[in-house]
Amino acid sequence: LGDRRHWVLTSVVLVRDDRDVEATSTTEVTLAALGASFLERYVETGEPLDKAGAYGAQGFMGTEVRRIEGSWTNVVGLPLELLPGLFSELGEELAAWQDW
Hints:
- The structure is a single chain.
- The protein contains 3 helices and 3 strands.
- It is α+β, with helices and mostly antiparallel strands.
- The protein has a 3-stranded antiparallel sheet.
C-alpha cells in the first residue's frame, strides 16, 4: 500500500425488530513510500496482525498517512457519520440509543 492510494470500505447495518438499514462508507487513503527498514520495524510491533488491511491510521502507521479523502473514522473502524442517518431511517434518534 505504500506510495499509492487505496480505498477503505466499511458497511454498517442496524437491525431493530424486523427492520434493517444499511450504508457503506468509502474513504481514499494515500500512504507514503514505505522502506524495508520501516516495514521490518512495523511488523515487529505486532500491530499489523490484528488490523484489516494490516494497518490502523490511529497507530504506528498513522505517521505514514499522507492523505485521507473522506471519513477518518471509517479508516480507524466505524464511520460515525453514518449513524445519525441510519438511526433516523429506523425512526429513532441516535441519542435514544446511548443507554444500550
